[in-house]
Specification:
Length: about 1100
């Protein structure tokens, strides 16, 4: 029978009563002094921009006049790219894959065809493109779409082999239909298959070429509504391309061949080429190759034509990477790609298909990259890609976002990052150069940091809603390359793959100190330097962190009497620091072969050359303990003013002095409570003997003499890892739910012996460590997975040389508060409610010599910058600690430790990420919950200011990468390759329209190619077609009613914003109509001029004949 615990009930009632009473009594006078400036009107949630490579691309199009590129994806997304910094993201509501894209060239419009057999018209003449019209086919599947240049009639090929024609202005179907059976007639007994190609003859708009999958090509006469010619080949067709003169076309086939056909030559192809096939000597057909998926045929005025194709490699090239082949004259260049080719487009000087094309570049869309090849330079170099498309170069494992950082930081990172750029790129300018930048009013610098699976860390300039890579750091260089030694792997590695993956990042922008926790239970501290150095020996500390609860040590069975903290100064050094701070030879095997004191990764023993940028200062590694691997690090923080880092896991925490290269504190979580542990912990094992741990005995006050170092300073934010990072292979959400179900209130409870109280959050600050303290002092606040907040007092020596010579004293000071759920974030406010950032040390050049070295020493002797209250502060001038857990937020008055405000954030879900952020006119708590809600709470009153159901948690990527930052900005990884930035600030939402770039800019369409006198006189050159008359309702009739359904664009508020109340749509249609009319008038003018020239010529010839025959008699003729 379960024992009834009356104490638990009484504790719960007591806490409720005290918290409600305190919020009324102590909260009332204090709240009068703290006017909350933020109101709900200051908040609005909206997406701003999306950066990165389009995830799972499926289609591509290019506007040669506007010079913009469109990419569609398998999830229905649409990404548009102009000049560097001009990007746009749109989404089809259905989420169906984009199978084809067609620009209305120089019209500011785009047609998209989706896998759900819908066709959409996008208006690009606004900063946020919107759909003007949609057409949903009901009976047939769309396979190919073609829109001729300067035409409003869209050809749509289907799986049944039919071709339908759509008026782009009204998005209605024409009654003109090309049926497959009429197109092939008796040329084939079987169905020809889906339509794989449609295009009109460059010189004759009335002739349409139709490619069927089975190998049949039909030249269709639109006026006479019958086939002029049919061309049959016994291999399936993948693509067709015209020669610009309209007398030849080329087909690519499934056996790796190219066939060139004359339009007047029936039966056999004019030429058959197998670009990668071995030619047998006996004249037989070459060996079949892989299919040529696409071919393009582009001509030049002064040289040989270009034939560009993807695929077609020989089957014996097993393991060869995907290739793009460029055939120019007698030369053939095979360009290997890193990923499979999705599509490619050749960029040409002219948009007119009946002129010499003059190709200058090829855009190649790969599964995970976008490559642009320069055809104008020898060797076909690629252009340096200016878009931020390399976010996914290695999978992103964690992110941090810092807004309003120091102004000199981005130039400093750029200066060292510019030296890392590769060489050998094309010297010409990036060819996709359309659009205009927005007129952004945001002037503050922003930085995004991404940690990756291969151990790299990338710094990105995210200012003014753009993204540009600044600097890349490779942490794997610190470690030895792993050998394929099975025994070593079994004994030391705790992850199967990506042993260098970055798990948590802590960064101090002011001091530029960077601290990284890896998945292999290691922490690396980096300093920023503008000079290169060679580090002979990488400094290393090894730490044993173990969790052990024994009957003897339980405070609940009378064993806590000897656990009072010793007096400062009486502690002995920890075992780790007994030797010099180089590579300790602590690795050992016990007699039974159990691994002990062995780190997961081996730090390199050879000298390390370090380029300007981030240079390793110290490596801290957790080691195996009695055959058990170290637990992964769950929380990390640094403070540059104190010269300390702290990290924790499910076993406990360790505080490291990186100036003196020593471990100050190494405690199990249980030991932080001392004799006041509220939990009845069961013994973990019957083993009584403990392995030696860092710190002084059990309690861990540790005094260390210092070796080397630098002046104190402080971290801008103590970065907290979400407690949703389970070991690989576990189900993350299940793990999180299970861990949350064990969360307790502040009443006395019993803990299962399997449950470990993990360290989930840290915060360095100058505050009151104990209840009733009269002055603030440096402290470390610690949050655990059971909702407890504990204080650790820090006794630091004076700044300067004394900091490097005198001991640092660390003393746990007891529990401050308890909340429901894991502690996620802690922060501090002063007695007026103003945010108190931690103190910090300004950056100095660590490798300076001579005069610079003297300046560095002066900087190190200065006091760190601190905005905390002075130590002479009176008791009534209190501070407020803001603590956020998975379930609650509390504001606690210090030093009284009374809870003055409390808010239950969620009952049915849990908070994934919480940050205390500074807005323009105040501070707030921003939270992201697993149920997709984004919330903002006022400070210090914790009033709800924003609650939007934004994004249901669909995968762990979002939980792992979501982060808020100051001034209403936030971001997360929306796909493995893309960062989505959002804002929750009303001011930013209002200014967003101005900040966004413009895709469409008014540009004159180039003049049509000159037809010449003789072509005009004798009827040569391109012939036009009155499509309006041919496809209009008068002549073609109405389309079948059930074939497709017309869907107008959105009509609601979003539609008004997106489509500009339909006015832009009407203007676009009117302009298209005017341009079409102008085109016809221009053609009429040309015809009139040709007729006048012909009439003048005839009159001249007639006059000459009259003069010649004037005096002749009739019988003389």
């Amino acid at each position: 029978m379960k024992k009834f615990n009356i104490r638990k009930v009484l504790d719960g009632l007591k806490e409720q009563a005290s918290s409600s009473a305190s919020s009324v009594q102590s909260g009332a006078p204090e709240n009068n002094l703290m006017q909350e400036t933020l109101q709900s009107e200051n908040f609005q949630l909206c997406k701003t921009v999306r950066h990165g490579f389009p995830y799972q691309p499926s289609a591509m199009a290019h506007d040669p006049v506007q010079k913009i590129l469109a990419i569609g994806t398998q999830s229905g997304a649409l990404r548009l790219f102009g000049r560097p910094g001009v990007e746009c993201y749109c989404q089809h509501e259905s989420g169906a894959a984009v199978i084809s894209l067609q620009f209305l060239i120089n019209e500011g419009a785009l047609v998209s065809a989706l896998a759900d057999d819908s066709v959409h018209l996008w208006n690009l003449r606004q900063k946020r493109p919107a759909i003007l019209h949609s057409l949903k086919f009901n009976r047939e599947r769309i396979t190919f779409v073609h829109l001729p240049f300067q035409s409003k009639w869209l050809y749509i090929g289907t799986e049944k082999g039919n071709i339908h024609i759509v008026n782009v202005e009204s998005f209605t179907l024409s009654g003109y239909v090309i049926m497959w059976n009429k197109a092939i007639e008796l040329s084939s007994k079987a169905h020809p298959g889906p339509v794989v190609h449609i295009s009109d003859n460059p010189m004759d708009e009335g002739k349409l070429i139709i490619g069927y999958e089975s190998g049949i090509v039909v030249l269709w006469d639109l006026k006479s509504k019958k086939a002029d010619s049919r061309y049959t080949y016994d291999e399936a067709i993948h693509s067709v391309a015209w020669h610009h003169e309209g007398k030849q076309f080329i087909c690519s086939h499934s056996d790796g061949t190219l066939t060139i056909w004359n339009i007047k030559g029936q039966g056999k192809p004019f030429q058959t080429i197998t670009p990668h096939g071995k030619q047998p000597k006996d004249g037989k057909k070459p060996e079949p190759c892989k299919p040529i998926l696409k071919v393009e045929y582009k001509t030049t005025r002064l040289g040989d034509p270009f034939m560009i194709l993807s695929g077609g490699l020989s089957y014996d090239t097993v393991g060869r990477r995907p290739c793009l082949t460029v055939m120019h004259g007698k030369s053939t260049a095979v360009l290997e790609m890193d990923y499979p080719i999705v599509d490619f487009l050749t960029l040409c000087e002219t948009p007119y298909p009946n002129d010499f094309q003059e190709p200058y570049a090829v855009v190649v869309l790969l599964e995970k990259d976008l490559v642009v090849i320069d055809l104008a330079q020898n060797g076909y170099p690629i252009f340096e890609n200016p878009y931020p498309l390399t976010i996914h170069e290695s999978p992103v494992t964690c992110c941090e976002y810092i807004a309003d950082c120091p102004v000199d930081l981005i130039p400093a990172l750029y200066s060292v990052g510019s030296r890392q750029k590769r060489q050998g790129y094309s010297k010409r300018e990036w060819p996709i150069s359309g659009g205009n930048w927005g007129l952004g009013t945001q002037s503050y610098p922003e930085i995004i940091i991404t940690g990756h699976a291969d151990g790299t860390v990338k710094f990105w300039d995210a200012s003014a809603i753009m993204l540009q890579v600044l600097y890349k750091l490779k942490t794997a260089k610190v470690f030895e390359k792993s050998r394929n030694n099975k025994e070593d792997k079994q004994n030391t590695e705790i992850v199967d793959e990506d042993p260098f993956a970055i798990q948590i990042m802590a960064w101090c922008p002011e001091s530029r100190i960077l601290c990284l926790a890896g998945v292999s239970a290691n922490v690396i501290i980096y300093r920023f330097s503008k000079q290169d150095i060679t580090t002979e020996v990488v400094q290393l500390l090894e730490v044993r962190l173990q969790y052990e609860v024994n009957d003897v040590e339980s405070p609940l069975d009378g064993g806590g009497g000897d656990r009072d903290p010793p007096t400062p100064g009486a502690a002995s050094p920890s075992p780790q620091t007994a030797g010099p701070p180089t590579h300790p030879s602590t690795s050992s095997n016990s007699s039974d072969g159990v691994r002990d004191n062995v780190p997961c990764l081996k730090v390199r023993s050879t000298p390390l050359k370090q380029s300007p940028g981030y240079q390793v200062e110290l490596v801290v590694q957790l080691v195996w303990v009695s055959g058990e691997p170290p637990q992964q690090i769950t929380s990390l923080a640094l403070n540059s003013a104190y010269g300390l880092i702290v990290f924790g896991n499910s076993n406990g925490l360790a505080v490291v002095d990186y100036l003196q290269k020593t471990v100050l504190l190494n405690l199990g979580t249980v030991e932080l409570y001392g004799s006041n542990d509220p939990y009845q912990r069961q013994p973990r094992s019957p083993r009584k003997t403990r392995q030696p741990s860092g710190g002084n005995g059990r309690f861990g006050v540790c005094v260390i003499s210092v070796c080397t170092g630098a002046l104190p300073f402080f971290a801008i934010s103590s970065t907290v890892l979400l407690s949703v990072c389970p070991p690989r292979g576990a189900n993350p959400l299940d793990h999180r739910d299970n861990s949350f179900s064990r969360s307790r209130s502040s009443s006395v409870t019993s803990i299962d012996k399997e449950v470990r109280e993990a360290i989930t959050s840290f915060h360095f600050c100058e505050t009151f460590a104990r209840k009733g303290d009269s002055a603030v002092a440096p402290c470390l606040f610690v949050g655990t997975s059971l909702g407890t907040v504990l204080a650790v007092a820090l006794n630091l020596p004076p700044a300067g040389e004394q900091r490097l010579l005198q001991p640092v004293i660390v003393l746990p000071s007891g529990t401050v508060a308890r909340l429901k759920g894991s502690i996620l974030r802690m922060s501090f406010l002063d007695n007026t409610g103003t945010f108190l950032p931690p103190s910090f040390e300004p950056w100095y050049e660590p490798n300076a010599t001579g005069a610079d070295g003297e300046e560095r020493d002066k900087a190190r002797k200065r006091r760190p910058v601190s905005v905390s209250p002075s130590t002479s502060q009176e008791l009534q001038e209190s501070q407020y600690a803001v603590v956020v857990s998975e379930k609650q937020a509390k504001v606690i008055a210090l030093p009284s430790q009374n809870c003055i405000f409390k808010h239950s954030i969620t009952e049915t879900s849990f908070v994934l990420r919480a940050d205390v952020v500074q807005m323009n006119i105040g501070n707030c708590v921003a939270c992201f919950c697993a149920n997709g809600h984004i919330m903002a709470l006022s400070l210090p009153g914790l009033r709800p200011l924003l609650d939007v159901n934004y994004l249901p948690l669909t995968d762990m990527r979002i939980a792992r990468t979501f982060c808020f930052t100051n001034l209403g900005q936030a971001m997360y990884l929306t796909s493995p390759t893309e960062i989505q930035r959002i804002t929750y600030s009303q001011e930013t939402c209002e200014n967003l329209q101005e900040m966004l770039g413009e895709l469409f800019t008014p540009v004159e369409t180039p003049e049509a190619p000159n037809r010449g006198f003789f072509k005009g006189l004798f009827g040569g050159g391109a012939t036009s077609l009155d499509r309006e008359e041919l496809f209009g309702e008068t002549q073609a009739g109405k389309a079948s009613r059930g074939l497709a359904q017309h869907i107008p664009g959105p009509q609601g508020l979003e539609g008004m914003k997106g489509a500009a109340s339909g006015v832009v749509a009407d203007l676009a249609r009117a302009r298209i109509a005017l341009d079409e009319r102008g085109q016809k008038l221009g053609e009429l003018d040309e015809r009139t001029a040709a007729m006048l020239a012909s009439a003048d010529s005839f009159g001249k010839h007639a006059h000459d004949m009259m003069l010649k025959c004037k005096d002749k008699k009739w019988y003389q003729f």
